[in-house]
Design goal:
Largest sheet: 3 strands, mixed
Structural class: mainly alpha
Strand content: under 5%
Helix content: 55-70%
């Protein structure tokens, strides 16, 4: 029921402007005004109402008053339809009006003609919707705008590479863009990408809705990814810090929903480098790291050389790289093809050589990098040995126990002869590693084709090499290192001259190779002799200490711990 008498109503709209209207006129069309002043029948007085959140502000309220004072008639323009729709429902202008349609019915009818709007009118309406969120979502207006926009993009991509190439009179051209948007379509935009520049001005929440709608319509994922990267690059220069975070989180979320293979690997690292200094959510960061880690076989060494955060002492962000390897293995290393594992292991070996000189890199962290992949992913461990050698050279203050612990990541059986020879004489490594190297070298020799008697060597050159090896291989080398040391302590003589000779004689036929083999074996021989000498000296010192401390007891005999092999 409306107001009978004149009531002067002052309406304060969002603090922007004050309107003085007749409450009787507005209450005839607005259910909200009628509820406020319906009980004021027969009273002539002044009233005031304040709206703090009126949709569209003072300009939109003026359209409402014009509609009421013009007997329920108003020219509805697509450029302000979204604002007028929200205002109509805000003022509850859906009540029955004699001889005319109420405002809510009129705006709904105008929405049915959205398919005839120009591209510019559609974009303007979407931009207005950004200011009316979330109320406009509940009215069903925004979904209609988004659906129309996605259909335009889809139809234009199917009919032509660029709308500007179509005839201005054609339906496809009129539906895809107008004169203004055509000017914005650069010639360098590839097929299907003409709309990128026009949508950059939209907010992240609308972009997310548009992308989801495109995915539901089976748009090309690659084209969607290109748009998301274009959007991020275009919006970043002028965006605030908080806005940049929202952009990154939206882009990562959308890329993750499209699948890891849709976006280029280089672009993922580009997003990562940008987001490092931002306070993005942990969920977003985890998704980005997972996308990168799952495709680690596509990475290069430069990709992994990421600077460590300021609050950490490491030169490179080793923790982040370890996360990449964790996500690469995923549900289990058995699920990863061996070819991918081998490619990533080669990348890890290069990374180890780069981070080894970092003076702040802890031994356990370095060992974690070595053990990030299973042993069978590597055919050779030479690169790991060289990285360890460099690490021990820089971290000279490590104890023998720490060095031994790091060396647990080294598979001696997968070292080449050159690496084993270098290791057996490398003083930067703990003594146990040298013993491991000698034992592995012996096992490699025993693994070659064996000959059970001297007569097997029929070639004169082979017989010559056999005699050469018999003269140069010490007896202690043909047995295990622990047995060799025990034999030397007991004073046993060399009685293994007639043991089986290990040699692949068919591939050795020149004097230069003979000399190299002889020099190689002699070097190992002297290394073993030096270790035996050290062991004997330490044993003598221990026996002297024991005899001076316990003169009445038998002398204790033991092998120094660092010379034992296990």
């Amino acid at each position: 029921m409306g107001v009978d008498k004149y009531v002067e109503l002052q309406v304060d709209v969002n603090g922007e402007e004050i309107f003085i209207v007749d409450a009787r006129v507005l209450s005839s069309y607005s259910g909200r005004i009628e509820k406020l002043f319906g009980k004021s029948k027969g009273v002539n007085y002044h009233q005031k109402v304040i709206f703090q959140d009126f949709p569209g502000g003072a300009a939109n309220f003026e359209l409402i008053t014009r509609f009421c004072y013009n007997n329920g008639k108003v020219n509805i323009n697509p450029l302000y339809l979204s604002q007028l729709t929200c205002a109509a429902y805000f003022m509850e202008m859906n009540k029955f009006v004699t001889r005319t349609e109420n405002l809510c019915e009129q705006v709904e009818k105008s929405l049915e003609e959205i398919k005839y709007w120009t591209w510019s009118e559609l974009l303007v309406s979407l931009k207005q919707c950004q200011e009316l969120l979330p109320e406009i979502c509940s009215l069903g207006t925004l979904p209609k705008f988004l659906d129309c926009l996605v259909k335009r993009v889809a139809s234009s991509c199917e009919t032509s590479s660029c709308p500007s190439t179509s005839s201005p009179d054609s339906i496809e051209f009129r539906f895809s863009c107008d004169t203004r948007s055509t000017d914005g379509l650069k010639n360098n935009f590839p097929r299907g990408s003409w709309w990128f520049e026009d949508l950059v001005s939209l907010d992240t929440c609308l972009i997310e809705m548009i992308i989801k709608s495109m995915v539901s319509r089976n748009f090309d994922n690659g084209n969607i990814c290109r748009f998301l990267l274009f959007y991020q690059k275009s919006r970043f220069p002028s965006a605030s810090a908080d806005k940049k975070i929202k952009i990154i989180e939206m882009v990562v979320e959308m890329l993750n929903s499209l699948g890891t293979q849709s976006v280029s690997y280089k672009s993922l690292f580009g997003i990562l480098r940008v987001s490092v200094k931002m306070d993005i959510s942990q969920c977003c960061r985890t998704k980005l790291e997972n996308m990168i880690g799952s495709r680690l076989n596509e990475a290069t060494l430069d990709n992994l050389l990421l600077r460590s955060p300021i609050q950490r002492n490491h030169l490179y962000d080793v923790d982040l790289v370890l996360k990449f390897f964790k996500y690469f293995i995923g549900k289990g290393v058995c699920c990863v093809p061996l070819s991918r594992l081998k490619k990533v292991s080669s990348l890890m070996d290069l990374y180890l050589l780069e981070v080894a000189p970092d003076p702040y890199l802890k031994p356990l962290k370095f060992l974690a990098l070595i053990n990030a992949l299973p042993d069978y992913a590597r055919d050779s461990c030479d690169e790991i040995y060289y990285a360890l050698n460099l690490y021990f050279e820089v971290h000279s203050g490590l104890s023998e126990e720490q060095k031994t612990e790091v060396c647990f990541g080294l598979n001696y059986e997968k070292l080449s002869s050159e690496a084993l020879n270098h290791l057996s004489q490398n003083t930067k490594f703990p003594p146990k590693s040298a013993i491991h190297a000698l034992f592995s070298q012996q096992c490699k020799l025993k693994g070659l084709p064996q000959y059970t008697s001297p007569t097997t060597f029929t070639d004169p050159q082979q017989c010559k090499l056999k005699g050469l090896l018999q003269d140069t291989i010490p007896a202690t080398f043909t047995d295990s290192p622990s047995t060799a040391f025990e034999t030397s302590r007991k004073g046993m003589k060399d009685d293994c001259a007639d043991q089986q000779i290990v040699l692949y004689a068919k591939k050795l036929g020149c004097s230069d190779e003979n000399k190299k083999i002889k020099a190689h074996l002699q070097g190992m021989h002297w290394r073993v002799m030096e270790l035996e000498k050290d062991c004997r000296n330490m044993q003598i010192q221990m026996e002297q200490m024991a005899s001076s401390r316990f003169p009445s007891h038998a002398k204790a005999k033991s092998v120094p711990k660092h010379c034992s092999y296990y």
